[in-house]
From TrEMBL:
Full protein name: PTS fructose transporter subunit IIABC
Organism: Enorma shizhengliae
MF terms in GO: carbohydrate:proton symporter activity; protein-N(PI)-phosphohistidine-fructose phosphotransferase system transporter activity; protein-phosphocysteine-sugar phosphotransferase activity
Compartment(s) of residence: Cell inner membrane
Pfam families found in the cross-reference section: PTS_EIIA_2, PTS_IIB
Lineage, highest ranks first: Bacteria, Bacillati, Actinomycetota, Coriobacteriia, Coriobacteriales
Predominant location: membrane
Record's bilayer topology term: Multi-pass membrane protein
InterPro entries linked to this entry: Bacterial_PTS_Sugar_Transport, PTrfase/Anion_transptr, PTS_EIIA_type-2_dom, PTS_EIIB-like_sf, PTS_EIIB_2, PTS_EIIB_2/3, PTS_EIIC_2, PTS_IIA_fruc
Amino acid sequence: MAQYDIIAATGCPTGIAHTFMAKEALEKAAAERGLTIKVETHGQVGIENELTRGEIASARAVVVAADKDVQAERFAGKPMVSVGVSKALSVEEAGKLIDRALAAKGDDSAVVAAADDDDLEEKESIGHQIYKHLMNGVSHMLVFVVAGGVLTAISFLWGITSYDSTASDYNSFAAMLKIIGGIAMNLMVPVLSAYIAESIGKRPALVPGFVAGMIAIQGLPVNAETGLIDAGGSGVGFGFLGGIVGGFLSGYTIVLLEKVFSKIPESLNGLKAIFLYPLCSTAIVGLVMLGISGPMAAINQGMMDFLQGLSSSGPVVLGLAIGCMCAFDMGGPVNKAAYTTGTLLLGTALEAGVGTETYNFGTNFMAAVSAACIVPPLITTFAVIVGKKYFSQEDHDAGIVNLILGCTHITEGAIPFMTKNIIPVMPIMMIGSSIASILTIFFNVHDPAPHGGFLVLPVVENGPLWVLAILIGTVVGGVLFTAFKKYDYDKNAKKDAEQPVLETAGTATAAVKAAPAAQAPQTTDFVKPEQVFVGESFASRDELLTFVSKKAVEQGIAQDADELMSAFIAREDMGTTGMTDNFAIPHAKSTTVTNAAVMAIKTSDIAGWETLDQKPVEVAIALLIPDTEAGTTHLKLLSKVAEALMDDEFRSAVKGTDDAATIAKLINDRLNA
């Protein structure tokens, strides 16, 4: 059975992006600390990499980063930190969570220090618990909305009234799609209610949760003739707000009943689960929900009137509100609030039918929300193409991928760009999204599908204008983002001109100067001609490092090529070793290295190796250090090579020759200086 220092569980409402971004950040943060970790993900496809009882029992600490129920009760008694998933999206923040979880086990002073952190112990925050329960319901509901909404939208391809057998554009297949889509959409409120309840009261809460959701749809039936409560009458539903209220009511009713029935003998536990809980909870919740149906219907109508009133204030006001919400946290709670509101208004619109005022408002609102969600990742794509030199290779690659994410309505791809510079990137994204939303409303665009991005363009009314609105928002935001990155690049270039080496190299130089002379290694003829490779061709940084690792084993410098490669990559993950003027200083400290060595590789341009001046790497001077010499030989060699790369004559001499012996002598002269 595998044992891990840290175990973790991640989950976001949609289970698409945040869940796996947090997993990656936690894994990298653990690796930086030399810790083993296993992360269980609660994504849209279900639980993956599931933790076993043995792994939970043997772990030193637990990190829960989730906005949905991840069965955290499994970790009872373990040192644990529980936060929202947005608090674990960067390696730095994930590292803090790991440190806090470990500190909770035994270091009292660390626990006290951590207690001053504003983000500490969110697991005790009532607000976070409520949000987590709500998002558990939203997570399960969204798939019904997407499936139902898209199927309904597809049915419109045969005509707006193609589902109506009395209409001239009737099509039986379109009618069946409309029926299936309508059933899925009608399930969204009961599912929302049931899984809010399940998050609170676990499985027993599902029954009253579903019933509460159905009541929220139907309202209190009243006979039109007698005005009295009548099972055969009709009522006024109170929508998703009623589903939310019903979900929390159902969950906490089960919690209350568990206390009430706690005195019943354990031998009757089966009776409680199959009879007492469903019967009592359904009766209590049902009566309360029917009792509040009138006030809830009024509140629901009031909210709709408010949104429509906001719309009557003009496209600018409504579009600005939608755009700012969607781009504020890009998939977080504020974004989800706007998107969920849009999907629920869309559900009401589809139920009301094409041509009604409710339909026009709901589909226009949904189009504005979709536009606002599509724009942020497209802004990053625009910026990395137009201002390529201002971005790292990693950011450039991520920006290109965001073209696909943006076009398919996945906003989260822009998060890594925002986390690096929240100000001004967040306001820039909000400006771009708001412009797209405002223009979408102004252009009278109607989107009957809740998700899919440009994939659902065929069913969008005024689709070309919708694309135009999105493009305008993208270009404006992209220009602003590129301008900021240019400013940031120029500022950093000025610093690099004054000290154009990595911070680690500067630290190494200072450390060597402070170290006793006796600890400095003997470096005479340190680099041998057979350790210099000229004319080799590599497609990537990793291919070059693999080559170095294998050659080191062949020459007796190291014992295990894979272990050496892992050491190189671990160092690169901490920060690139790409320097300026086409040079790089990859270095590895590992127990597999038998004796310190320097190897030089001169090659054609290597794409994808991030450097300080964005130029491709042509010369790599690799340092291979035994783990026991990490504080002496490593620092000496690193500082010497870093100082050499500051010398224009040295760089020009190395780049100007293809003779291995000459390159070895040039490097040896610097190491002996």
